[in-house]
Amino acid sequence: MQALKRQPRLGVWTLLEAAFAATVLTAAAGAYALSQAQPVGRVRDVGLIWLSRRIPSIFGFDPTVYAPVAVVKPVALEQPGDLGAFLFPAVAGNLAAALLVCAVVLPWLVLGRRLLPQAELLWGRIVPVCVLTGFLSPELIRRLGSSESPVAVGAFDVSLVRGAFWCFVLGSVLLVALPRASMFRALIRVGSIAARVVLLGSLPWFLVSGSSARGFVLPPSAPQPPNILLISIDSLRADSLHCYGYGRETSPNIDALAREGTLFEQAVAPTSWTLPSHITLLTGLSPEDHGVTAPRRRLGPEAVTLAEVLHSQGYETAGFVGGPYLDSSFGFLQGFDHYDDYTAVRRMGRASAEIVTSPLLIGAVEEWLADWDKRGRSRPFFVFLHLWDVHYDYLPPAPLDQLFDPGYDGPITGRDVQSSGAINARMPERDRDHLRALYDGEIRHTDDYIGRLIDSLRGLGVWDQTLTALTSDHGEEFFEHGGKTHRETLYDESVRVPLIVRYLPKTPPSRRVRQQVRLMDAAPTLLSLAGLARPEIFGGRGTRAPRDLSVLIDGNESAAGAAPIAVGHLFDRDYSVRTARHKFVMTRGQRELYDLAQDPGETRNLIDEDQAVAGALEALYERWMVLEAESVSEPSEQSPEQLERLRSLGYIQ
Fold it and tell me: How far is the C-alpha of 324 from the C-alpha of 342, rounded, in Å?
């Protein structure tokens, strides 16, 4: 007992060295574990930074909202050398966090030692053990606090409490196992040497690590290829744009884009929800081929994306996204030098539906373009921009919230669209009209920011040298078939999307293409219009191969041949087959057939009147599905914050 009471004091520098060693080694272990568990890593998901956001996230707050970009930026971890680009920032970032902790705690320790100078047990044993255990706690909690993957920690009452218990156990063991301060000093010295080796060894590895974008060798492209801008507006149905015949002036800037380029009147998405549809847009693969058809699937590294093709042909590639299903963890990082899935998506819960993202996203694109300009424009750019504000909730900022329905004084605000029982198929028509007006206000709001981006490109003098395409991942329901929002059906209000392409050297002004096209055709068309080689490994095969639509843009629809069918899938539940004239829908086990020429609203089911046509479409579907293809998807793990964000939007249970 006397030995416990009489302990040599450990100096402040020894305690700081303990914090340094524990922080570096914990962060390095966490970074390595992350690289082995998933293909994308962020500094915020490692060590002390992870713990500092994990605890506040229980209360709906994420302190990394205010962190530097380096903390939240995704880094590819698919290739063996990628760890080098991630290890040093992860360790250095956690060291910075540890310094902040020490700056807060150290004055209290100094004050305590002055007030209780005789408490040898406290200063010789308990405090050093608490320091060491505390800075080791992130990896202890992550590894011992949950039976799940160390990447996806479980709920608070399971993982954090269990992890805290094991930290207490470790501290108790150290308290008993280290009877002398000299042993503690020796332990810290060994750990400090190991930490220095890790820190100094990871720095040169980081400095020589290349871009995270993955590429392959392709033939050189034609001289001076154009810049490429691909814009996807989430949840935008085609018939809500003025250039598609809508009565309201929802889209003056998009209308101008259509007047200077080609508008496809019948563009069809492969499904009615965000994740698989965007994977199709960026790979040219149908959902049957890419396999990312459920929330816990992601694109595998063997898939080839449009960004990878362009990166391999000398493009500088950048993506800017506003919705949780475009998170890099789903495989979207492939091929991008820069992928911003954090500027507009740093919040949890209902904020995903309520936050106004267009100013943030356009600002981020403008900042990137300014940097591209300062670097001498040595490479043409490919920018993929995903705009989110049209997605529910429908909360356009004033005065756009009153623009299309200024006299309304009813109860509908556009908030809680997915969950509100007041927004239903039996709601008064006046309220339903106002709901649609709010949606239209969101479109106008988004259109304004598209106009701002176009002005920025004009200011840089590159607008006319930029091949621009605008589309959407799916539409939106307003009770045409009894439902609201999306991801519920495959009717045209959910899958007919806009597709507009503008590039002055190749797209005649005001061209309108009537032939049916598909979202999977967009990427190969951009490559063709830019004069770029399309690798054989890009896109699907056989009947599921995407089409180059440049022949249609040239106005020669007869040379393009008959339009292929557009097949839609919604999980394992529903499917559809669409031709220029008819559409067959299998919805919840019920067969439906519609004549789109006579009944574009799909209101009259002809299944009993024309079994021959229905049978022919089903045969086309069987032919589409008979092609065997190995899926390029793999299981996906999301963080608790990401899962909560998807859950709040009604995407998962």
Answer: 10
444, 396 contact by CB (below 8 A): yes
Copy the structure tokens of residue 464.
Answer: 């006319």
Largest distance between two CA atoms of the chain: 98
Quick one: fold of 227-648?
A: Alkaline Phosphatase, subunit A (3.40.720)
Say if residue 393 is preceded by a cis peptide, omega within 30 of 0: yes
Rg (CA), the chain: 28
Is the peptide bond prior to 219 cis by the omega test (within 30 degrees of 0)?
Answer: no
CB 180 within 8 A of CB 5: no
CA-based nearest residue to 37, from 639, 631, 630: 639
Model confidence pLDDT, tens digit, residues 30-80: 999 888 888 889 999 998 898 888 777 666 667 777 788 888 899 988 777
pLDDT in tens, 454-486: 999 999 999 999 999 999 999 999 999 999 999
Strand order in the sheet with 267-268: 496-497, 267-268, 517-518
Q: Which residue in 135, 142, 130, 134 sits closest to 30, CA to CA?
A: 142
Question: What is the H or E stretch that residue 586 is in?
Answer: strand 582-587
Query: What does the CA dihedral 280, 486, 326, 217 come to, rounded to 10 degrees?
Result: 10
- The pTM for the full model equals 0.89
pLDDT at position 154 over 70: no
**What are the structural domain ranges in the chain?**
2-208, 227-648
Q: How confident is the model at residue 7 (pLDDT cuts 50, 70, 90)?
A: very low
DSSP state, 549?
T
Helices (H), 573-627: 611-626
pLDDT the model gives residue 187: 78
3-state secondary structure of 111: helix
